[in-house]
Amino acid sequence: SAMLELSDVEVRYGRLVALRGLSLEVHKGEVVCLIGPNGAGKSTAMAAIAGGVPRVAGSIRLNGQELPARKPEQIARLGLSLVPEGRHVFGTLTVEENLRVGGFLRGNARESAAALERVAGYFPRLKERWTSPAGRLSGGEQQMLSIGRALMTNPRLVMVDEPSLGLAPLIVDAVYEILLELREREGLTLLINEQSSHRILRFADRIYVIRNGTIQLHGTAEALRDGE
Ligand code: ADP
Ligand code: ADP
């Protein structure tokens, strides 16, 4: 059965219907990509899962349990973490401080220290910039920091909103290599939003194509690659 299951989810912003009956599944250990143009509803889907926007219909289940609507802290404690679009690092805080902010939900100092060491191990580039203000990092480094920050709570499912945005192709590959390494070594499950399938078909197990708030097409990356 699915780790994450959305069934007929509807979200509105006032009169605008951002998600109209969105359904999708993510299985444990999978890398699933949600692909669609700007405005399709990708960020809203992640916000709905993470408890950031109210839904007017549908269900969202994590390991068979209905997720509470609009309870982001509670949902984070269930092992779900979101890497927002646009990185949103704290520019005046150092790399280490940014990571510590991510561990805030854990509360426990000894656990945070262990998480910090574990997360830093995946990002050698960040270790070199440990005491630099995050605002001085390159876009790729900021993306890695934003991912690292989301890992501080030791999540099982990580949602990454448009990690490629504004990054050079080689840097995008480096970011995806780290995401795949995390899947291998931590057994992480990944849901990733992207606008284009161009580089993603190589990395994803399954793809959902979203448009106007609903899924238009889905399949294995292999099948979609062959259909191109
Ligand atoms: P995306 O690239 O995922 O579509 P946007 O750049 O559209 O993200 O949105 C950035 C922020 O602005 C988000 O917090 C989103 O919820 C908000 N936003 C997007 N569109 C609107 C809108 N039409 N009215 C108000 N807020 C919006
Ligand atoms: P995507 O992530 O695929 O770019 P979004 O989920 O950001 O799409 O947006 C879906 C639709 O909802 C768009 O029409 C966008 O303008 C609108 N929208 C997003 N956030 C808000 C918001 N906070 N208030 C009003 N409209 C929004």
Automatic annotation (TrEMBL):
Q: What are the entry keywords?
A: Amino-acid transport, ATP-binding, Nucleotide-binding, Transport
What Pfam families does the annotation carry? Answer: ABC_tran
Q: Does the keyword DNA-binding apply?
A: no
Identify its protein family: Belongs to the ABC transporter superfamily.
Which biological process annotations from GO are given for this protein? Answer: L-amino acid transport
Its domain of life?
Bacteria
A molecular function (GO) term: branched-chain amino acid transmembrane transporter activity
* ABC transporter domain sequence ranges: 4-228
This chain belongs to the protein called ABC transporter ATP-binding protein
